[in-house]
Write a structure and sequence with these properties.
Elements lengths: L14 E5 L2 E5 L9 H6 L6 H17 L4 H13 L10 E3 L2 E6 L8 E6 L6 E5 H4 L7 E7 L5 E7 L6 E7 L4 E16 L5 E7 L5 E8 L8 E5 L6 E6 L5 E7 L4 E7 L8 E2 L9 E6 L2 E6 L8 E6 L9 E4 L5 E8 L3 E8 L2 E8 L5 E4 L7 E6 L7 E7 L6 E6 L4 E7 L11 E9 L5 E9 L10 E5 L16 H4 L4 E5 L9 H5 L7 H16 L8 E6 L1 H12 L6 E5 L5 H5 L7 H8 L6 H10 L13 E6 L8 H13 L6 E6 L10 H18 L4
Parallel strand pairs: 32-33, 32-34, 34-35, 35-36, 36-37
Antiparallel strand pairs: 1-2, 3-4, 4-5, 5-6, 7-8, 8-9, 9-10, 10-11, 11-12, 12-13, 14-15, 15-16, 16-17, 18-19, 19-20, 20-21, 22-23, 23-24, 24-25, 26-27, 27-28, 28-29, 30-31, 31-33
Amino acid sequence: MSERPSAPRPEKKPVTDTRHGVTRTDDYAWMRTADWQTMFKDPSTLEPAIRAHLEAENAYQASEMADTEALRKTLFSEMRGRIKEDDSSVPAPDGPYAYGTSFIAGAEHPRFFRQPREGGERTVLLDGDREGKDRAYFQLGGADHSPDHSRLLWGYDDKGSEFYTLGVRDLSNGEDLADRVENTGGGGEWAADSQGFFYSRLDANHRPSQVFYHRLGTSSTDDRLVYEERDAGFFMGVGGSRLNDFIFIDIHDHETSEIRLLHADHPESEPVLVAARERAIEYDLTEGGDVFYILTNDAGAKDFKIVEAPTSAPGKENWTDVVPHEPGRLIVSHIAFKDYLVRLERKNGLPRIVVRARADGEEHAIAFDEEAYSLGLQGSMEYDTDIIRFSYSSPTTPTQVFDYDMRTRERQLLKTQEIPSGHEPQNYVTRRIMAPAEDGETVPVTLLYHADTPLDGSAPCLLYGYGAYGISVPASFNTNALSLVDRGFVYAVAHIRGGKDKGFAWYEQGRREFKTNTFGDFVAVADHLVEVGFTRHDRLIAEGGSAGGMLMGAVANMAPEKFAGIIAAVPFVDVLNTMLDDTLPLTPPEWPEWGNPIASQEDYETIAGYSPYDNVDAKAYPPILALAGLTDPRVTYWEPAKWVARLRERSTSEATFLLKTNMEAGHGGASGRFHRLEEIAYEYAFALKIAGKA
């Protein structure tokens, strides 16, 4: 019998860095590949010493989790059993056709199809499984039919590094044209004549810095440069109006936006600026015929308002309020139709859809009665229609899709998510409670548990958190969580500061100099769940990913004794080093979110004060599972690798620290709907093992 591998103890190779008069030493800086730009495109170029270390970590975690193999198979089987394998979306009408996506039994990837508008035989336009055959990793990007319905623009990533290749399919014969464009952001927008498309190209540092126009039948090397963004701190994307009148070039960071317009029927024209970027001012357009409806926080509208301006003169000097700012009511998105303006807003922590008649301004809302629920505004591909489509779910209610007639106010249920293995909503309880934070704020918490679960503190609990970028975590149906809930877990989501769950101020209070509020909120929720009897600290497992993984690292340093275990997926834990490296893909655009420690000593000190990797100390840490993707351009693999090495070096406890690196994937983990379930089963098996239920 072979010996079990021991925990890797990587070599220390001290590297010092001095900024603002402060010198830090990083013993594990060598884990950062010297040429990540090349490695993301060709993982075989990873240095042998780094690869050997990651493989040693993978061997160690496989050994430590070997006793959960049967459990993982059971969990995977359960989660797969809740998926209708031969599922289909409700086709969305557009002109003579209706378009949708579907899966066949056993398929990892979707198919894109269309059928006659009024129903009939479906034609498969693109088969994801066929395109991804024999690839270790494959992820479809966008798929957009041309205005004349003759072609399909589609993208794919076969490394996990999010460098997408675009292709064009002739829908008359199912064959791809010779037109191919590499190193793109994953999607594009057709010109009105269907003879070409606009797309963003990624530069060597994985930033979408240029927008090009590609004319069908020409080489991509001859594509016309439409716009180039020279500020590395801004993201850029391309979109279009449903009337096919305009192309939108959207330029933004996390707090500032700028839009430039082209007429879709004149692809050779130069983009026209709508409103010049102003720090901390955001705006977004939707076309309403001869006017634009503009969602903005301009003029002190912290929770956003909607203004209108003529399409012929959309500058800020012509903005007129349509839906005025109302503090505490966050307008999330909007969409215009010939006779209606529709918005998705959040108030008192819950979403609702509001329909406004353009003729007289009369409004009515679509809302639901559960304590916690999620709404998704899908809108319509068409402009001249009275019908919008939206989705509804809650932690106990599977997703439902409705068509809603804005004129008659009647809703039609089109589809309810089917759970093949069965689901009885009455067996589960959804709650929304408020946890007091140290500064007097109250933090919303969404709970899901089985009706038979004792609420005397004996139940284990998985507490999930994110808290960044203004992203609100929806109270939606999660079939995977049922595998924990059915085993006696309380599944909790902490809607902490850094998201916009309680309005824009909730976001402001959890970013930059106020970032530690995010961590304090999470710990306060953990304390409250224990205080009111939902769980105990020795049965409480924390989980978060990406920026939520940074949250995991921070609370591990702040209050390790309050968690029985921690799961950190692709965790952003080396915050200070990453924000000091302006060559990395996301660093300059992220400075508005976290601060710029290169330019500002104050920002440096703030980040240094909470950066998880920099604050690992001689403490009794709980068991921690970290997950990484080798080609992840968002949170590079070396962040969790360095973090785990330092935890293992400094922790005073006997806890196990595991690093699982997917050597064939990026930020999103394994591609394909079933391969992804294997990773979730692994995470849940870790939680169940910690809770003594493995």
